[in-house]
Design a protein that fits this description.
By secondary structure, the protein is α+β, with helices and mostly antiparallel strands. It is built from two helices and 14 strands; from the N terminus they run αβββαβββββββββββ.
């Protein structure tokens, strides 16, 4: 027979099980939705219906070099999903850099990066690179279109190439591959890997070097960027997008 202490323990265990049982079904439904249904929903949101890029990513024409003929150093686009904001940055216009090359901060962390120990700029001056416009801290949209006079101001400072998040102060050094130089961001800003057609002048996105931010859908591989997350709604600035903040 159970003594008084064992009986109380059993009562507590059974009471706890009864208390949490109503939560089990919603949790299972939640997991089933994000890991089951979203995988079938997500292809509808791909910017291009092909797998000609790297590791299953779509190869997507972002723009022609002639479309970047304004003085604005940034150009916004969506990739790999229609609601994933990214931006090209032409360092020759931002801070007069040409032949841009820097270490890939995610080199060998993911298979997709094995051939990209260094990232080099594309275009006639080898000065164009591309980044996610979503802060990896808590998912705020980064105001890369706001050209600001100081790195301490939210926006993009041309003299340092630091992009400062307005939400919690994360700071990314773009001309070093988006490495974190301030604030709570836990890792570098993901980059979009580019391909340039010298004959036509077209710039293509072919993959990402790291996962984007996502709290609800854990994205541990760059390929997880292909999973649609309905909780986030971002907007793309109209190109040319630059706003100079004094």
């Amino acid at each position: 027979m159970l003594d008084r202490r064992d009986f109380l323990r059993l009562t507590l265990v059974l009471g706890g099980a009864i208390a949490v049982s109503p939560l089990i079904t919603p949790v299972l439904d939640y997991m089933g939705y994000y890991y089951g249904e979203l995988k079938s929903i997500s292809p509808k949101y791909l910017v291009a219906n092909n797998s000609q890029g790297l590791e299953g990513f779509p190869k997507y024409r972002i723009a022609n070099i002639n479309q970047l003929n304004s003085s604005c150093p940034v150009y916004f686009f969506s990739y790999p999903l229609t609601d994933e904001p990214c931006f090209l940055v032409d360092f020759s216009k931002l801070n007069n850099m040409k032949d841009v090359e820097f270490k890939n901060p995610y080199y060998n962390q993911f298979r997709i990066n094995a051939q990209f120990k260094n990232v080099v700029g594309v275009g006639p001056k080898r000065s164009i690179c591309a980044f996610s416009a979503v802060c990896v801290h808590l998912g705020c949209q980064l105001p890369a279109q706001a050209l600001v006079p100081s790195s301490s101001d939210p926006g993009l400072n041309p003299s340092t190439s630091v992009l400062h998040c307005p939400c919690h102060g994360s700071m990314y050094q773009l001309d070093q591959g988006g490495v974190v130089v301030g604030g709570p961001a836990p890792r570098p800003l993901p980059m979009v890997l580019l391909e340039y057609d010298e004959r036509s002048g077209d710039i293509y996105a072919i993959g990402n070097n790291a996962p984007y931010f996502s709290e609800a859908v854990p994205r541990r591989r760059p390929k997880d960027n292909l999973i649609y997350d309905p909780r986030y709604s971002y907007s793309l600035p109209t190109n040319p997008a630059c706003v100079r903040v004094s």
